[in-house]
Design brief:
By secondary structure, this protein is of the alpha+beta class. It is built from 3 helices and 6 strands; from the N terminus they run H-E-E-E-E-H-E-E-H. The protein has a 4-stranded antiparallel β-sheet with strand order 2-3-5-6, covered by helices on one side. Strands 1-4 form a two-stranded antiparallel ribbon. A hairpin with a 5-residue loop joins strand 5 and strand 6. The longest helix is centred in the first third of the chain and has 15 residues. The protein is globular, with a radius of gyration of 13 Å.
């Protein structure tokens, strides 16, 4: 099983590789990272939003990055998996 710190580093590298030149600078929302069903759920948003937490700066529909803690696979979440990060009591 991957350590959470190592999984978070893998998610950050994945986000950096995935970022397009046309997008605002993005960063992981470390306050909302959590583990569920063997996955590290890693939300991200614009650096500007994360600094201010002002809703008008928030990017919409940012699918979180999911890191499989057993295998180490890193990818964006899918529509079918939305329940993992939207319907939680945490």
């Amino acid at each position: 099983m991957r350590e959470q710190d190592e999984a978070l580093q893998a998610a950050a590298a994945f986000l950096a590789r995935s970022q397009r030149d046309t997008e605002p600078p993005l960063a992981i929302d470390t306050e909302l990272v959590r583990e569920s069903n063997g996955l590290l759920i890693v939300p991200y948003n614009s650096v500007q939003y994360l600094a201010s937490r002002e809703a008008r700066e928030q990017l919409l529909d940012c699918w979180p990055i999911l890191v499989d803690l057993e295998r180490g696979d890193v990818r964006f979440g899918t529509l079918e998996e939305r329940h993992l990060w939207k319907n939680t009591s945490a």
